[in-house]
């Protein structure tokens, strides 16, 4: 199976062939997978070098000139390092782009903290008008990338990861999917967290919603789910814990409810190793998730939250 | 008053001080505003192929004011050329006015980018030049105006170092040099652009003929920078 990042390169190379508005802007990262695009579309496939402020600024200029730029590097250098360019050159200029990141929260644990970006979605939450897709499988990444590029001049973030579910689901670029139905709580699994959530909730009487488009947050789906499963809600996100807690609270503002936001902790681990070890360290493996979900739906609040 | 009504009146260079005088409240940026006046006038009067009617045309020349501080001279020139009504000028900086102390492209006709945070215009201009080239619009020129102290911002150097080797010959930068950078060496600005493969000219930023000659000098295969020297800000 190819990775989401492999799929990104092949899909965007095809989109360059299909749509003359599409451009891709890179900053060295993943450039080795775009050699065919550089050859076929030298003016619309651009590598600006290791220059991330220019990466986003140039994308803004391309959008203002009428193109639909797809902009890519690691999340830490796409959202965090040039954050002011994201805020001003896209938001304030009223220019659209599709930002596609790799690396996620800890795809490369041996790379350490410099290449970890658990705060990317939370940072984008400080800005207006961003659509955020978090695919959990390469097939979903392809679907969501196509939605993102086709979304007019919208500002769209697509968060790719090496973490992937065993099978892709029929995502539509808008709605949460209902994967399992129960009566004692709703668990929202985001993107690559789905398989761990399904294993963790095996035999539990909970509804599992699957979210791959997290902004806008599908408040309707959550409200519908709580009608039969009750208003104990657990969010399991592959980035900073609590990133969507406010969105879930807003969705349920008119009913008494409880929300537990699980995800990547704030504290820097200063550990290398494998990403499975990092998942466990943040309590995102199936066993830890099951413990915390069970405690919470029984009315308690798990330690460390 | 509509923009159309206002356009029936024409203004010349001699009217600019009076138009600028209609704006008050940004005295902090006063020297920054006048340092750009002659550069802006020569560009809009004799170089840029854009007017109120073509402000959204795909083939227009683009002018991106990167140095958004002290935009009174910019607004005065835009008013003189009919992009916006002179009647807007007295409202400068007020809640209901489209004219802020830093410009907003979504509020003002003819303004290509919002600026104010330094170091954004040149990278956006690079992208605009790339975007036009990718659409086979080889005729429109892209201009951006930066200040000498604005070049302190590292984002400019990402753009300068890329644009030369990329051969963006429709890209033009004017550096208005009023010696406001705290750390600078004589000749350093042009040298940095030249080292990156730009064609560079340094002229008197108050001399309209010299500015025009520099702005229209051929620079095949290379982007052009014109360093327009004006009286030092702190003299």
TrEMBL record, chain A:
<protein>
    <submittedName>
        <fullName>Transketolase B subunit</fullName>
    </submittedName>
</protein>
<dbReference type="InterPro" id="IPR033248">
    <property type="entry name" value="Transketolase_C"/>
</dbReference>
<dbReference type="Pfam" id="PF02780">
    <property type="entry name" value="Transketolase_C"/>
</dbReference>
<dbReference type="InterPro" id="IPR005475">
    <property type="entry name" value="Transketolase-like_Pyr-bd"/>
</dbReference>
<dbReference type="Pfam" id="PF02779">
    <property type="entry name" value="Transket_pyr"/>
</dbReference>
<feature type="domain" description="Transketolase-like pyrimidine-binding">
    <location>
        <begin position="2"/>
        <end position="167"/>
    </location>
</feature>
<dbReference type="InterPro" id="IPR009014">
    <property type="entry name" value="Transketo_C/PFOR_II"/>
</dbReference>
<dbReference type="InterPro" id="IPR029061">
    <property type="entry name" value="THDP-binding"/>
</dbReference>
<dbReference type="GO" id="GO:0000287">
    <property type="term" value="F:magnesium ion binding"/>
</dbReference>
<dbReference type="InterPro" id="IPR051157">
    <property type="entry name" value="PDH/Transketolase"/>
</dbReference>
From TrEMBL, chain B:
<dbReference type="InterPro" id="IPR005474">
    <property type="entry name" value="Transketolase_N"/>
</dbReference>
<keyword id="KW-0786">Thiamine pyrophosphate</keyword>
<dbReference type="InterPro" id="IPR029061">
    <property type="entry name" value="THDP-binding"/>
</dbReference>
<protein>
    <submittedName>
        <fullName>Transketolase</fullName>
    </submittedName>
</protein>
<comment type="similarity">
    <text>Belongs to the transketolase family.</text>
</comment>
<dbReference type="GO" id="GO:0000287">
    <property type="term" value="F:magnesium ion binding"/>
</dbReference>
<feature type="domain" description="Transketolase N-terminal">
    <location>
        <begin position="29"/>
        <end position="217"/>
    </location>
</feature>
<dbReference type="Pfam" id="PF00456">
    <property type="entry name" value="Transketolase_N"/>
</dbReference>
């Amino acid at each position: 199976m190819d990775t989401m990042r492999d799929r990104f390169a092949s899909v965007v190379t095809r989109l360059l062939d299909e749509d003359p508005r599409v451009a891709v802007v890179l900053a060295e990262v993943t450039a080795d997978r775009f050699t065919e695009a550089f050859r076929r579309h030298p003016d619309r496939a651009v590598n600006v070098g290791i220059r991330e402020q220019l990466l986003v600024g140039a994308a803004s200029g391309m959008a203002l000139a009428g193109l639909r730029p797809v902009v890519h590097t690691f999340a830490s250098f796409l959202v965090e390092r040039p954050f002011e360019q994201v805020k001003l050159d896209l938001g304030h200029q009223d220019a659209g782009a599709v930002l596609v990141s790799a690396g996620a929260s800890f795809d490369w644990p041996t790379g350490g903290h410099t290449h970890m970006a658990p705060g990317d979605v939370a940072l984008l939450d400080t800005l207006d008008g961003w659509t955020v897709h978090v695919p959990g499988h390469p097939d979903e990444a392809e679907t969501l990338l196509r939605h993102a590029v086709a979304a007019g001049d919208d500002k769209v973030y697509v968060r790719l990861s090496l973490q992937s579910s065993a099978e892709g689901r029929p995502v539509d670029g808008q709605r949460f999917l209902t994967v399992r139905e129960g009566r004692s709580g709703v668990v929202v699994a985001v993107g690559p967290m789905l398989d761990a959530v399904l294993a963790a909730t095996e035999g539990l009487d909970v509804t599992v919603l699957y979210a791959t488009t997290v902004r806008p947050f599908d408040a309707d789906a959550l409200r519908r789910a709580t009608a039969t499963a009750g208003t104990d809600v657990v969010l399991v996100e592959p980035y900073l814990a609590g990133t969507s807690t406010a969105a879930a609270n807003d969705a349920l503002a008119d009913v008494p409810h409880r929300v537990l936001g699980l995800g990547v902790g704030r504290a820097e681990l200063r550990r290398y190793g494998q990403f499975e070890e990092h998942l466990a360290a943040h309590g995102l493996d199936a066993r830890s998730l099951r413990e915390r979900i069970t405690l919470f739906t029984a009315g308690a609040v798990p330690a460390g939250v | 008053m509509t923009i159309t009504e206002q356009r029936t009146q024409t203004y010349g260079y001699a009217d600019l001080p009076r138009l600028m005088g209609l704006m008050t409240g940004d005295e902090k940026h006063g020297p920054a505003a006048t340092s750009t006046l002659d550069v802006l006038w020569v560009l809009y009067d004799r170089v840029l192929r854009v007017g109120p009617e073509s402000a959204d045309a795909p083939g227009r020349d683009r002018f991106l004011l990167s140095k958004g501080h002290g935009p009174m001279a910019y607004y005065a020139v835009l008013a003189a050329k009919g992009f916006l009504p002179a009647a807007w000028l007295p409202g400068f900086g007020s809640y209901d006015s489209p004219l802020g102390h830093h410009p907003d492209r979504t509020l003002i006709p003819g303004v290509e980018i919002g600026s104010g945070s330094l170091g954004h215009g040149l990278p956006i201009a690079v992208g605009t030049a790339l975007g036009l080239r990718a659409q086979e619009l080889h005729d429109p020129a892209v201009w951006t105006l930066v200040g000498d102290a604005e070049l302190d911002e590292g984002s400019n150097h990402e753009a300068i170092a890329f644009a030369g080797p990329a051969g963006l010959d429709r890209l033009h930068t004017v550096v208005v040099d009023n010696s406001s950078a705290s750390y600078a060496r004589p000749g350093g600005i042009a040298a940095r652009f030249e080292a990156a493969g730009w064609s560079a000219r340094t002229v008197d930023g108050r001399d309209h003929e010299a500015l025009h000659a520099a702005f229209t000098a051929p620079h095949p295969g290379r982007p052009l920078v014109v360093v327009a020297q004006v009286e030092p800000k702190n003299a």
